[in-house]
Amino acid sequence: MLFGAIESGGTKFVCGIGNENGEILERVSFPTTTPDETMGQVIEFFKNKQMDAMGVGSFGPVDPNKDSPTYGYITSTPKTKWRNFNFIGELKKHFDMPIGFDTDVNAAALGETEWGAAKGLDSCVYMTVGTGVGGGAIVEGKMLHGMLHPEMGHILIKRHPEDHFTGNCPYHNDCLEGMAAGPAIEKRWGKKGIELQEVDKVWEIEAYYLAQVVVNLVYTISPKRIILGGGVMKQKQLFPMIRKNVKELLNGYVETKEILVDIDNYIVSPGLGDNAGLCGAIALAKRAYQG
Ligand code: ADP
Ligand code: ZN
Asked: What InterPro entries does the record point to (predicted)?
């Protein structure tokens, strides 16, 4: 089986061909410019390729509801050129096959349950902490949508007592994304995260914020595993700090063995590493094919 996979991000599109085992056989990437230009490159890449289905994990907000007239659209994105873009409609004009569509993070969560860190589990959350913060969830084996789809990156958080940064979310200022995404770190400290590796306070504050989303997920979705990916999570020292803060914040209220004895295997890095997004799109294609 061969699947076409698209991971569409705000800065670049990654396209690839993968198989039913989540192996990537071919991959290219294009900068995200205008729908005309970028989609032109995407269509050119997949044209004449042998594929049984396609999958698209996209930056959002998107409309993943199959019964909606705007299913398959990128909807109210701040990237104005892509606003109300009929992504799946455009692909369908060129490729007559099943096409799966979801948020980039729901796709990554699905890929991680198929082949990665949540393999064998019917539930997990995948969060990315990069240019933005976002999360996708698998609940009872299915990607979670609900009214729209989760927007976990924008939850409200308690401020660290030593943090006076105003926050940089254009909608909420000091929501999680506004305080903890890569650009927030850079704005608060005047340097990129990667250059701040040795500055302990940076990661102490970062872990304090990320632990809060983990705790809120434990209380709401109760996922069986939480996977933290994205550029900022390359700072591996964050993991033990987040786990410690999570235990402190829970304060004994949730007494599962996952939290009490095995938290190292509860809050983890992506098993698929930097391929989580593209493998997620392959997993979406596989699901679309299976119907
Ligand atoms: P995107 O979210 O655009 O898909 P990334 O997940 O790579 O891309 O996130 C990019 C953000 O992560 C940038 O703000 C960058 O400064 C930050 N980042 C990337 N690598 C590191 C690193 N090793 N340490 C800390 N921050 C990093
Ligand atoms: Zn926000």
From this structure: ATPase_NBD (IPR043129), Carb_Metab_Reg_Kinase/Isom (IPR051804), ROK (IPR000600), ROK_cs (IPR049874)
